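Hi! If you just cloned this repository, the fastest way to understand the data is to look at a raw example. We've pasted two of them here, unedited. The first protein comes first, obviously.
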Amino acid sequence: MGQRVKEFAVDFMRQWELQSMIWPGVIFMIIFCYIPIYGLTIAFKHYTVIDTLDSAPWVGLENFRIIMSDRYFWDSVVNTLGISFLKLAIGFVIPIILAVMIYEVRWGRFKKFVQTVSYLPHFLSWIVLGGMLITWLSTSGLFNQILVELGLISKPQNILLDPGKYWWIATLSDVWKEAGWGTILYLAIMAKIDPTYYEAAKIDGASRLRQIWYITIPNMKTIISLNLILTVSGLLGSNLDQTLVLMNSQNREKAEVINSYVYRMGMTQGDFSYATAVGLGVSIVSVILLVTANKITSKLNDNQSVL
């Protein structure tokens, strides 16, 4: 044991410049990520604002029993899964297609213009984008004017007040905001592909689509698998900022997601134990989804895990 400590000290002093950059981040994670884990004990207690973490009485699994019988919680689960699966089906594929299209553009200035335009929404907060959407989707907004001019509707209506359309509004607006930013990793991978592969394919008479399918996509397999794992693990973590901005009293039945439900129960109604129990349950399920997705993708990648 003493020999190991001595070796560690020697290695630490030899790399003190690198260690000085790493340890502040490690200390930050310990203070703000690991020590607060003790607060999860609230999920097994009846905690109020006048209690401390230690003084609150234990109630065991009572909060989890309440969750299982809470209809509003299960409604939020359905909404979360519905929106998340739509985002997975559309929002996961669009950045790949967009990245390939940008990569195939040969005119440098136009490529930079497209990249800039597609990246821009990512840097705008949901407060800004939400305000734009609320205006565009209102009765006198841009979308209603377009739909009326095209003859698709006869009378303008506030689209955001229709619960049946909310899932699509949430999905498409999220894709609009994040699709361009999601192309960065894919473009970085494609930039490293050996151009001789494409030259050999051209000599063999392969079209551009065949080159994309047999060269570009296979070389992106690892990063696609990684993004898929992270996306699947976050299926229960629908965007809270987006929900708080776009949700209203009319579309709440389809807009309420788990994160907003936890926020409302904890911060608005003060039921911190219940909110913590919901958050803990979601975290456990997310870890299970992460491990499962990793196992499945490793099977598809010749038993090689990307994590």
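Ok, and the second one:
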Amino acid sequence: MLLALHSFIPLVGNPFIDRLNEGGPLFMYTTLFLLIVILALLIRGFVKPTARDKTVTLVSSISLFVLVWGFLGQMLGFISAFDAVQAAGDVSPAMLAGGIKVAILSPLFGMIVFLIARIGIIILNILKK
């Protein structure tokens, strides 16, 4: 039992995991899952040249979805943050800045995944010759 518990200790206090949870688990973990899918598809495109056209199309579609998904998370985060500000009335600038920081995490992660996918697509297109 201690061995199993010990294997999860590095996840506690991990800045990456903390940011995933802080940015809204639904949007952040979905984006992380789609990043893994995109990486798997890109690897398939590198290994299997006959599937490159289909892979480029699929990765392109998923990358656009991830980008929009991140901004959807931001908009929903802003709505809930502004609801909290409205309910509280007087909010400190530090609390407002913290809320804005959290709202920016989801689209930032979506943009990073989008860029990774687009770089992979560019490389696949170069190799397509």
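That's it. A detail worth noticing about the second one: The mean pLDDT is 86.
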